[in-house]
Design goal:
heterotrimer; A alpha/beta; B mainly alpha; C mainly alpha; A: alpha/beta; Rossmann fold; 8-stranded mixed sheet; 12 strands; 35% helix; ABC transporter permease (chain B); transmembrane (chain B); transport (chain B); MetI-like_sf (chain B)
Amino acid sequence: MLLEVRDLHVEFRTRDGVAKAVNGVTYGVDEGETLAVLGESGSGKSVTAQAVMGILDTPPGRITGGEVVFQGRDLLKLKEEERRRIRGAEMAMIFQDALSALNPVLTVGDQLAEMFTVHRGMSRKDARAKAVELMDRVRIPAARERVRQYPHQFSGGMRQRIMIAMAIALEPALIIADEPTTALDVTVQAQVMELLAELQREYRMGLILITHDLGVVADVADRIAVMYAGRIVESAPVHEIYKAPAHPYTRGLLDSIPRLDHKGRELYAIKGLPPNLTRIPPGCPFHPRCPLARDVCTTDDPPLYEVSGTRGSACHFWRECLDG
Amino acid sequence: MGRYVVRRLLQMIPVFIGATLLIFLMVNVMGDPIAGLCGERQCDPATAARLEQEFGLDKPVWQQYLTYMGNVFTGDFGTAFNGQEVTELMATAFPVTIRLTLIAILFEIVIGVTLGVVTGLRRGRPVDTGVLLLTLVVISVPTFVTGLLLQLLLGVKWGWIRPSVSSDAPFDELILPGLVLASVSLAYVTRLTRTSIAENRRSDYVRTAVAKGLPRRRVVVRHLLRNSLIPVVTFIGADIGFLMGGAIVTERIFNIHGVGYQLYQGILRQNTQTVVGFVTVLVLVFLVANLVVDLLYAVLDPRIRYV
Amino acid sequence: MSDRHEEPEAVIAGTSMGGAMDLGVDEAETLEKRPGPDGAGPEDRPRSLWSDAWRDLRRNPVFIVSALVILFLVFISLWPSAITSGSPLKCDLSKAQEGSQPGHPFGFDGQGCDVYTRTVYGARTSVAVGVLATLGVAVLGSVLGALAGFFGGISDSVLSRITDVFFAIPVVLGGLVLLSVITSNTVWPVIGFIVLLGWPQISRIARGAVITAKQNDYVQAARALGASNSRLLLRHIAPNAVAPVIVVATIALGTYIALEATLSYLGVGLKPPSVSWGIDISAASPYIRNAPHALLWPAGALAITVLAFIMLGDAVRDALDPKLR
């Protein structure tokens, strides 16, 4: 395994108490593999990613337990300087909104070249040439001229390409993309996603794709991990999940996708809201919203049951769910 | 950009006229310019009438204003109470006040920005709380009290400096007055920098910089500071005009013969030409400083473009 | 004393800035700020800006201390005789510059007046000038600012240029020119001057707040439903503009007190036999070497008073500005 997150716990201190954002998340991704992490906002998917990258705001955040094993080393045990050398070079991150994620007062060329001067000790001139090369690589037209422009002078899609260029600059083994296409127009989304998938295949990188968009997932992901209230509720190869989900939350998510063949029917929505993370309900955190919930769900927190060799579900009644 | 500058210059004209006219009216309507011309003695009616005619004081105020401004634009600022040309007074007074202002600005940049960065990065820690409280105290104590106290302590009690500045006002004697002049702005610069740093520290692009694996120093200096200092630089720029106009108190405490001193004398003796002349130049400095600040804004923040 | 920033008349390129920023909020932030979305628990009910701010303020020691100081100041300005039996004008030249002695804890000033009594009576002047000037500035400034912001167009441009004119005149300088010729020995000329030069600061704040509030969807909706201008201004827009005006006015109150003292120090504010800390500080400064106490007590009182108002304003701002939470 390239990256294995084991039993990770993250908390946040807030005005209303301690918010348990991540509660025992375990997932892994291999070289060349794409893992899609799915969940609503507040499900802990981004916080997990930030903990893996080592860019969690501490305080208010705090990692209270678990391991992040990357290329055989537990990152949480490394010194900050060692982690810094890994960040950007061995694992890189693509953020949702490139306009705010890129520095508004530096040219894109400067921001790209920085990767090479800092991590590779290149001269500014060589680094600048590399930046142009990268922009060509992510198919930004007229790269040689545009390298001197500022982020706000690019369109949304082009900016996200620059973010991608920055992420692949040092050919990292792992890329974490946090909702990389959410802020983009629908027409541009597909192009950017395609580019990302293509680069991933080419460099055989591991990719963690954080999203709430099931449509994107189906095309590019190998595996899916569904998160709810800071834990993994279902983990499975992508085609199996689409065929038959083994958790009522996953089922709810799939049912709430608008589909052409269901035209005219009312759109399904999971009832209720995700729990307040300072007061996660006892038992299964999903039980207040679950159509299958019974008494046991209000008392016993389900473990991740093994559905098959490659598949797990944190539902006491996964068999029923699987049978529909 | 060029069109923007022209438009701003045109906008400055009414402000310039308004401000100078306001002062002109204040001095003329409120005071008695003839009394000022005769010095300490009372003018006899005949002299008063002759002077009135000589200076055009028998004409309507607006006409006097126009005549005065007309003269100003040919470089004739009139005569001061002691018979000296106002321009001569300016030539001796402005260099002193400019030196004083320079020192004050330097204090703002060096001490204010440093404290702001340190506290902004350590928000909520003891250093932060301490400095924040100190800035509040500095803002609260009026400049003339700060000045008198520092003069008492450093000049009189401990004898570190000369309590009053000699007439040619060299740089080293202006250090303490410069600090006093800067004190309130310094506290504002600290607070502004602190807020700006603390705000930007949580921004997405700083997180990106961290995610890129840049060393902390580089994240702070190249990414965080560059963005956070934009409002600070504009504040300091705009402050130049305020410091020069606000130097009256400081110059009085330390007996510095700068712009503030000459203005004070002019006002006491109700000498219209001195007061309006100096104020005219100060207003110009203020307006130009503000224009420069706005243009500087565009240099610092590429997202700003002028229309 | 003034908001020193000229808003640069520039356009932020990339019009989607605001919206994009909202999307960029990371999950941790969302977590922190989200009030319990499940609506369970009694403390999860929505709180108004003011009750929320009040809850914060009651727990803020800075607020409590400064509020107590201000209450005390108001008390002694109304009933100075409650804590001193002397008269500020009863002086004994034979005791000039003498230090602390029984019955006269702060000693005597250069004229042989009791410094303690004069310091106590000085509060009245400062509080009166501060409160009355702030009221004048706040009323004039917010009315003009709100009207300009609401109606826009020519009235707005004219007002903006007028505020520019006032900003271009250094405050202390304007005070010297205007007040040097006034012989009245009351607080009114000083108050009048402060209102005259102070209102543009508030009017800018009010104008900005009104323009922001005007763009809110619910105001647009009310307008679409046919609400009259006066109703829009009073019911929908004014409540949003009140908070920033109050904050700035509280802080300004402190600076006005400092300004009165400064003008009195320069000899153009209040003049003897009025009792003012500025006058006393000015009178004490020539013999600062022999009798520093005559300067330090009024200066200390002045500093504490200004500090109390500025800290109060600061605390109120922190409580009202959710961004800083």
